[in-house]
Amino acid sequence: MLLSASVAALSACGGPAPVATEDPEGKGERVWTLSMNKICKEWDGQWQGMTVASDGACYFGSSTHSKGHGAGFHKFDPAAWRHTMLAEDMTYVCGEQDTPSQQGKVHSPVVECDGWLYFTTHLSNYWKEGIENYTGAHVMGYCMATGEFRDLGIVKPRYSIYSAIGVDPVRKKLYVFVVPFLEELYESDGCHLYSVDIATGEKEDLALVVPGRKGAAFWFFVDNRGDVWFSLWKKHYDYDNDRGNLYVWRAEDKKLETFVDVLPKGRLIDGTPVTDETLLSQRCWTWVSPLPGREKCYFTMGCLGGGDERLWRFDPSKDIASGEAFEEVASVGSTYFESAIGGDRFYFIQYEDLQDARTLFSEDEREVDPDGPGYVDRKLHLRSISLKEGDDPNVITDHGPVVDAEGRAARMIMSMAADDKGRVYTYGSWHVKSFKEATLQYLLFEYPNGDLYRLVKRGEFFAVIDTHAE
After folding, report:
1. 204-237, pLDDT tens digit by residue?
2. Would you call 378 helix, strand, or coil by DSSP?
3. pTM for the structure as a whole
4. Contacts for 178-185: CB closer than 8 Å, 24+ residues apart
5. For residues 329 and 169, what is the distance between their CA atoms, to the nearest angstrom?
6. pLDDT tens-place string over residues 305-346
7. What is the dihedral of CA 293, 294, 295, 300, to 10 degrees?
């Protein structure tokens, strides 16, 4: 089903939504920001869901935990320095505006094939009523040339996608990780790997990966043979016999293969081994990016992934059991979703103090009242290393604190992309100058079945960091 982007952009809050915003004077600033809560107060975070596409523009989602509002989808064109809201509420784009649950997040990567971008929706209304009424996650396409959305439909009714999507551009297949949140579904079933045929939308259940429980896989690496590589996120979930497994769906053989406990054991940036048994048991990929040609990929296993502080290169053609397939590239310190490849550089955001980066999770820290006694002003910094052949990848460039020209500072970044022009794109929670920029937060955990919101002392901002404007 195809939908016009102009129709999809109609505001779920009532009336026409703002569509495009230009700020040519912002071009050239070191850190340029755009308040997302001036568009919609209920957008309250973004995890993954961002890419720099082949047309040079940055596409990204904006997510909620709302009872009445879903995720947005956006484009930023750096040539015109123009932001365009392509859709304010994916619930409407999916034709579910009359359902009691929302398509509240774009929590997947955004992948590209033949001029189309593909991503998935995700359950975000985690209260009992929301989970019970959730229709299921959709796979969505967006045509960059025409501005049309294509709904490839719900993959498995009442199941979400949490959150990996990958694309095989040769065989024209998408792969998604399907997860139940309703207790009766995950106890009687579990998490599945599905394929979606791009041409027909046909969906195939390839494997039950995690039986009898919830789970998560954030990233896929689909190699040039069509094999789908992934690991399971363990911070909040336990699995049978998995302390550091690597999984692969063999496209030709049509079977799931498991390499048991093969992911590298962690080391800190100074080479100190990670010995904590809990961290060692949580080893997984927390960020993945394929190299050109898809013969290899980069990955990290830092924050919430086992505590390793290195950038790795994975080559599936080499022996996995012996560790030969895992090549250490550089030591960079603790990282998470806020990582990206742009040109020949690897960019990442972390606290200025590496011990803070190692022990603090910015999603928790963003909730601390900046006017309260427990607040410490810890700055997030953008850093990078060179991946150019002949350069020393262990030389870290600090591009400075992520603070805009008006003094707003980033408090959490969980969505990031970069281009080959030295521009880094982020979406996250920032300090605000006034409550006009603040997030209207649904009190999900304090009052899970209520209808209570509060303005918090932070707001959601899209930002462009120009590393050449330093």
Report:
1. 999 999 999 999 999 999 999 999 999 999 999 9
2. coil
3. 0.95
4. 178/137, 179/214, 179/215, 179/216, 180/214, 181/123, 181/126, 181/131, 181/134, 181/214, 182/131, 182/132, 182/134, 182/158, 185/158, 185/159
5. 27
6. 999 999 999 999 999 999 999 999 999 999 999 999 999 999
7. 130
